Amino acid sequence: MHALLRNGPLAKGLLLAVGLLIGAAAFAQAGSAPSRKDLERVAELNRRSFDLRKDHPDSSMALAREAIILAGGIGDTVGLALAYKRVGLVMSRRSDLDSALWYYRKAMVLEERVGHRKGMMATAQNIGEVLKKKGDLDQARDMYLVALDLGKALEDDEAQALAHNALGATYQRMGDFDLALDHLFKALEIRKRTKDKVGLRASYLNLGNLYFAFDRDAKAQEYYHYYIEAARQEGSSADMATGLMSLGNMLERKAPMQALAYYDSALVRYRQVQNKVGEANTLLNMAGLRTTQRDHATAMLEAEAALDLHEKAGNSRGIGQAHLLLGKLERLQGDLPAAEAHLQKALHEFNDSGNKAEVPNVIDQLSLLRQAQGRLDEALELIKRYQEMKDSLFGEKQTEQLAVAEMREKYDAEQRVAEIQELKAAKALEVEKQERRTWERNALIGILLLLVLALSMLMRDLRQRKRLARQEHALYEQRINGMMRQQEIRSLDAMMEGQEKERKRIAQDLHDRLGSMLSAIKLQFSALEGRIEALQQDHRKQYAHVFSLLDEAVGEVRRISHDMVSSSLARFGLRGALEDLRAALEAPGKLKVEMSLFGLDERLDQRVEIATYRMVQECVANALKHAKAGQISIQATRSAGTLNVIVEDDGVGFDTKDVSEGMGMGNLRQRAAAIGGTVQVDARPGRGTSVTIDIPLA
Q1: Closest CA to 585 of 637, 636, 548, 623
Q2: Do residues 367 and 360 lie in contact, with contact meaning Cβ atoms separated by under 8 Å?
Q3: Are the CB atoms for 314 and 349 separated by under 8 Å?
Q4: Quick one: angle between helices 157-174 and 117-134, nearest 10?
Q5: Which of 105, 112, 90, 92 is nearest to 8 (CA)?
Q6: 545, exposed or middle or buried, with CB in 10 Å at 0-12, 13-18, 19+?
Q7: Distance between CA 1 and CA 600 in Å, rounded?
């Protein structure tokens, strides 16, 4: 065990630790036992420190240090080890990984000394987490195996599940899919057996991440949906946000608009539970995706907001990542001094917090910045440094998947080296040519002045003509686009108008055909009112006629009701009707409709299918008529006892506080309420609209 704890302590906290150990030794030599009151005080300080670790890290740290002083003074070894772990926990959350590792190892030494196996098990797990954050995957794996062995010896199911889960995540980062899957499924089996709902959600999420990391998107999406559904049932908005974030990550390359919609939904939920770190990480993901789409202005705003949140939370790793992205954005927009400042801050944050795995990314961006500044020799040196750091991180024990990724990065770096070499050669050649041309330019300066004057007049005329041609072409395209948009709107209006005419026709049939029959029945019964006693003897014909009219009325109602049911719904169910709707709406180049249907292979109750289809129609109509949307996303997920429908668009959006609820939203809420469902609307100006419908199926 001591072999795992050989690293020397950092300077931070060394003097305090030595003093406490000396005090503890002196107290032990005195031979007096700590009082129960003092032991309870140490336990209370440790408990309060743990409770405050997320929202009030400074207070948590102060309480843990107070516990260290008291426990060291009374010789409470177990309490002292726990206090060290409380400090390590705060340090880890602040990304001060070297300090966290030092405190955890001090706790392990104390727990091993007194044979406190349960404490050693938890500490081994903590050390493994810090080592994994630092990128020391082999050492992290060894610590998780220690925690697993101790959990088995103590027959602690929860500890074994945690260790299996951590091992699965570690093997995933090492590129060993089979071992990762084996450990994650072992954790899942334990949590199912022990009915650990929180742990079960974590297992679903980790399995989704594993399948996604190895490009098995279908299985990844399946487990992400399991995770989101479990979080929904438990009412955990924060976990739902995490699941939506994971789906967004998976869809970034294939469906960026849908990924942004998931990120936006996650952002709303993180803000609801006031999870600042989650909110900041979501904003960074959104900013990174917008950077790839060249929406630099929006990406800059989101990255700056993420930086502010990470700074308030004291999250060094998040601060570094935000500065790294801002440096890249400033370089792409041409503000090279600002890019330099951000990248130097990112490098400082990662170095100070021990996040060595992030440093190569900063070096890579600095090399691109030096190239943009024309400092080609420095750019070459930085690329070589980047390659060396990547080699030292991955080492020689690369798996096939990691080797391919590393080879691709090396190839990109080599291409950039060749590009810089070409730039240097071109620059040298240009200098030589420039010197040779100097004397020619001096001899021809008079002629060139005349030519420049003539050419400038000619160029001005050509530019004027090109500008006019571009303006005419732009106006032509605007007219064509306007005509296309008007044609689409007229088509959609015609469709909606046809539906309205159908409703009016049904109302007219009910009034004219069925109403007249019922009126005739009323008259017949009125005629029979005074002769009830002799009905069977004197008025059999009239009685038979009345019942004949009733039969016709019933048949007419049945025919009208049949006409009201959509043919697609009746034949193919909700899935078929929604797919028909998508096919009818999509117009290439003008309107894109994305659809994701999960769990709709089996038919639902007809009333639920009709109501759901009508609500989706209403949402789509609103998006086309009012939101001016160019892209619509329809997602329907059926899980145990619930049907969840999300309709999102990239239109102009609106402020829900300033706009009163019209007939469209009123119809939606009435339809949903009729089948026991609810409707939630999330909209902001310029950010599109998201409508979420939840319908119980039990």
Answers
A1: 623
A2: no
A3: no
A4: 20
A5: 105
A6: middle
A7: 54
Strand partners, 632: 593, 649
Task: Write down the H helix ranges in 637-682.
Answer: 663-674
Amino acid at 661: E
Which residues does residue 643 pair with via DSSP β-bridges, in sequence order?
Answer: 638, 695
Angle at 573 between CA 626 and CA 666, to 5 degrees: 35
List, as one string, the DSSP characters of 596-655: EEES-SS---HHHHHHHHHHHHHHHHHHHHTS--SEEEEEEEEETTEEEEEEEE-S----
Cβ–Cβ < 8 Å for 604, 569: no
Of 454, 400, 356, 310, nearest to 130 (Cα)? 356
Under DSSP, is residue 680 helix (H, G, I), strand (E, B) or coil? Answer: strand
Residue tagged 């009333």 (tokens): 607
The residues pairing with 642 across neighbouring beta strands, listed in sequence order, are 639, 696
Distance in angstroms (rounded) separating the CA atoms of residues 259 and 246? 9
Kindly report the backbone phi and psi dihedral angles of residue 369, in degrees, each rounded to the nearest multiple of 5, phi listed first. Answer: -65, -45
User: Among positive and negative, which fits the CA dihedral 334, 336, 340, 342?
Assistant: negative
The model scores a pTM over 0.70: no
Distance CA 646, CA 656 (A): 17
| Residue 644 DSSP SS3 | strand
pLDDT block averages, 10 residues each, the chain of length 698: 37 37 40 79 93 87 94 92 94 87 95 93 94 90 94 92 93 91 93 90 90 89 91 89 90 89 92 91 94 93 94 89 95 94 92 80 91 87 82 50 48 62 64 70 74 80 80 61 48 50 61 58 58 56 68 63 55 84 79 89 86 88 80 91 92 74 72 90 88 90
Do the Cβ atoms of 263 and 286 come closer than 8 Å? yes
Tokens of 439: 């004397």
Distance of alpha carbon 520 from alpha carbon 657, whole angstroms: 53
- At 576, phi and psi to the nearest 5? -65, -40
* 697 and 642 Cβ atoms separated by less than 8 Å: yes
Query: What distance separates the 2 farthest-apart alpha carbons in the chain?
Result: 133
Cα angle: 375, vertex 376, 382; to 5 degrees: 95
Q: Report d(CA 373, CA 367) in Å as an integer.
A: 10
493: helix, strand or coil: helix
d(CA 445, CA 447): 6
Closest among 228, 229, 210, 227 to 219, alpha carbons compared = 210
DSSP for residue 52: T
Among 304, 426, 409, smallest CA distance to 367 is for 409
Give which of 179, 207, 198 is closest to 239, Cα–Cα: 198
Q: What is the 3-state secondary structure (H, E, C) of 163-213?
A: HHHHHHHHHHHHCCHHHHHHHHHHHHHHHHHHCCHHHHHHHHHHHHHHHHH
Q: State whether residue 587 is helix, strand or coil.
A: strand
Are 282 and 245 contacting, i.e. CB atoms less than 8 angstroms apart? yes
Q: Specify the amino acid at residue 23.
A: G
Instruction: Give dist(CA 223, CA 459) in Å, integer.
Output: 63
Q: Helix 137-154 vs helix 157-174: angle between axes, to the nearest 10 degrees?
A: 160
Under a CB-based contact definition with an 8 Å cutoff, are residues 119 and 107 in contact? yes
Strands 642-649 and 689-696: antiparallel
State the SS3 of 240-258.
Answer: HHHHHHHHHHHHCCCCHHH
Length of the chain equals 698
